[in-house]
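hiii, so i know i said id send this last week but things got crazy w the move. better late than never?? heres the sequnce for the chain we talked about at the cafe, plus the structure i predicted for it. fair warning i was half asleep when i ran it
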Amino acid sequence: QVQLVESGGGLVQAGGSLRLSCTASARAFSRYGMAWFRQAPGKEREFVAGINYAGSRTSYPDSVKGRFTISRDNARNTASLQMNSLKPEDTATYYCAADRSSYTYPPVEASTYDYWGQGTQVTVSL
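okay and structure toks below
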């Protein structure tokens, strides 16, 4: 069983930055694809960023491309999400997810991911 723990959420003004971190308990962390999703009240869970097991491929939706950057450190079992130029519409609970299938390209469907963190709140004010 893999446990994922997110940290780094908080309140920030529009235009500001936050960095989220996800620490995994997995022994074979380097085999897992990692991703970040978010969910705002009353909305479906949305793919935000993904990185494959090797760190050689990343994926972003247009809504965050150029503002968010996902990275991973396999030696420290961590995945991070750097969020810049934040907007009020980025307000949501952000979830870290792990996929044990070692896809070359990060999947965007939430159903593909096997393990989830508890979430961390990000609030962007005007």
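btw The mean pLDDT is 96. thought thatd interest u
miss u guys!!
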